[in-house]
Amino acid sequence: MSGAPEIRALGAPAATLGEGPSCDPLTGVVTWFDILGKTLYEHDPEAGTTRTHALPMRCSALAAVDAERQLVVSEAGLFLRDRASGALSLHRPLEADRPDTRSNDSRTHPSGAFWIGTMGIDAAPGAGAIYWYRAGEIRRLFDAITVPNAICFSPDGRTGYFTDTPTGIINRVALDPATGLPVGAPDPFDTGHGRGEPDGAVVDADGCLWVARWDGGCLEHLSPEGALIATIDLPVTRPTCPVFFGAGAGRMILTSAREGLGPDALAATPQAGCSFEIRLATPFSGKLDAPVALAP
């Protein structure tokens, strides 16, 4: 990758914990959350505007359903959101017996299945899990996870990735492309390249991973084999997750966090918590997530 990227903060209020960016494949609108601030952001790339919506609970991810509805992942379960009014209605409970947990990183598989991560509200060791949802059914895939992140999938749906952030390891697992369910045990894919811990990640059309490095101040571009292709330095120390958007999914937005940063760190990185558009010198093709399947 040649040439320095252009990194521009979007005109939106900084988040305490910006997370869960996604690009709606039906509208092209990019959404993300301030989990701790209970806020949904909606960014219209064509208009260059960003709207914010106050939420009644901590939410962490959103997926398109159809022209009228979206599915929102929250600490209180899975909710359907009416696009026109923003009204939320409970679709399925998730860990309803666990007031000590909340949702975290989640992503739609090409089959329409939705992988959903949960974690302890105070990041208690092993309190979280990763679940599979499709057509009303929920299954637990992996448990004893502290901070689930980097949930993403290869373009053909045959490979899934995830991390438990404190371990520093991104895992890879073979999947049934028709269902998004694992067909084998996970194995280590990437153990890091010396900067921070893995947070959110996406896979582009070539099967390469783009990984935000929490406390590493960078975005890593990895080959399908796990080799480091490039490192993009960022103006924040706690980037959280990238997302592709635009024509050919050839543009990128990245969220970040202010959570846990003291006065000196905030003074050194005043854009902490902002979301950024990253324009690379070399064109690339990303991949948009599919709508989530509510019916078989």
TrEMBL record:
Q: Give a Pfam family name.
A: SGL
The cofactor note reads:
Binds 1 divalent metal cation per subunit.
Task: List residues of the SMP-30/Gluconolactonase/LRE-like region domain.
Answer: 17-258
PANTHER family named in the record: REGUCALCIN
User: For this protein, what is any one GO molecular function term?
Assistant: gluconolactonase activity
Regarding protein family, the annotation reads:
Belongs to the SMP-30/CGR1 family.
State the name under which the record lists this protein: SMP-30/gluconolactonase/LRE family protein
- Keyword Zinc annotated: yes
Q: Which residues bind a divalent metal cation?
A: E19, N149, D199
The signal peptide, as residue positions, is none
What organism is listed for this UniProt entry? Answer: Paroceanicella profunda
The protein's required cofactor(s) are namely: Zn(2+)
